[in-house]
Amino acid sequence: MTTDELITVDPEILGGTPVFRGTRVPVKTLFEYLEDNYTLDEFLECFPTVTKEMATELLESSRKAVLKPAA
């Protein structure tokens, strides 16, 4: 799943805030929950429109982007 398949940025949805595709859940909310020591399962329980696959794919994509060696 690509980032474009995971995230929507649309001015008509929360003023263009990046959200998980097909939801109104901001992507930043996942990171905020994890930063506040909530588990992934707790996040998913609070936001049932986000699937576990969506959340883990986003985290994996973020990990790869951050840890990508410089060219």
Describe the structure.
The protein has 71 residues and is mainly alpha-helical. The chain has one domain (3-52): Winged helix-like DNA-binding domain superfamily/Winged helix DNA-binding domain (Arc Repressor Mutant, subunit A), CATH 1.10.10.10. It contains four helices and two strands. It has helices spanning 3-6, 27-35, 40-46, 52-67, and strands spanning 7-8, 19-20. Strands 1-2 form a two-stranded antiparallel sheet. The model has no long low-confidence stretch (mean pLDDT 94).
Write a brief structural summary:
By secondary structure, the protein is mainly α. Helices cover 51% and strands 6% of the residues.
The CATH superfamily appears as Winged helix-like DNA-binding domain superfamily/Winged helix DNA-binding domain
What proportion of the residues is helical, as a percent range? 40-55%
What distance lies between the first and last C-alpha atoms, to the nearest angstrom? 24 Å
Give a short account of the largest sheet.
2 strands, antiparallel
Strand order of the largest sheet: 1-2
- CATH architecture level-2 label: Orthogonal Bundle
Structural class, from secondary structure content?
mainly alpha
Number of helices: 4
Number of domains: 1
Rg to the nearest angstrom? 13 Å
- Number of strand segments: 2
Order of helices and strands: HEEHHH
CATH topology: Arc Repressor Mutant, subunit A
Overall shape: it is globular
Under the CATH scheme, which class? Answer: Mainly Alpha
**Roughly what fraction of the amino acids lie in strands?**
5-15%
Model regions low in confidence, pLDDT < 50 over at least 5 residues = none
Average pLDDT score: 94
